[in-house]
Amino acid sequence: MEPGSVENLSIVYRSRDFLVVNKHWDVRIDSKAWRETLTLQKQLRYRFPELADPDTCYGFRFCHQLDFSTSGALCVALNKAAAGSAYRCFKERRVTKAYLALVVRTQSQASQSSWFWNTGCTQVILSPKCC
C-alpha cells in the first residue's frame, strides 16, 4: 500500500448507513490542529463532501478508532441512528476487532534462533518453531 494522500482513500464497503474505508498507516482519523496535513477526516471530506455532517465535531461519525500507525478497516456511520446502533454493538461487545502483524525476517536475521518484536509496552519473542 502506498503512503496515504487525500486522493487515495480505499472504500471497502458502502451502504445507506455505513461506510467502511481502509485507513492508511500514519494517518490520524481526525484533528482540529492546523499542522495535520492529512487525516482520514480530510480524505472523506475530499471524496464525499456531500456526506459531511455539520452537526458533528469532525464532520463524520467514526464508529471506532485505529491508532495513528495502524492501517485497516474503519467504520463510519452515515447518520445518527446508524451511529447509535454501532455504539451499542461495540458497547455490548457484539463487534470484535482483530489485528494481524506481518513480520519479515531478513537474511541477516536468518541465523538467529528467535525474532524479537518490541511493541513499546511488551516484547514478543517468536521462536522459529511457532512460525
From TrEMBL:
Q: Report the superkingdom from the record.
A: Eukaryota
Q: Can you name one GO molecular function term for this protein? A: RNA binding
Q: What range(s) does the Pseudouridine synthase RsuA/RluA-like domain occupy?
A: 17-106
Q: An example of a Gene Ontology BP annotation on this entry?
A: enzyme-directed rRNA pseudouridine synthesis
Tell me the protein family, please.
Belongs to the pseudouridine synthase RluA family.
Q: What is this protein called?
A: RNA pseudouridine synthase domain containing 1
Q: Which organism is the protein's source?
A: Pongo abelii
Q: What is the lineage of its organism?
A: Eukaryota, Metazoa, Chordata, Craniata, Vertebrata
Q: Which gene encodes it?
A: RPUSD1
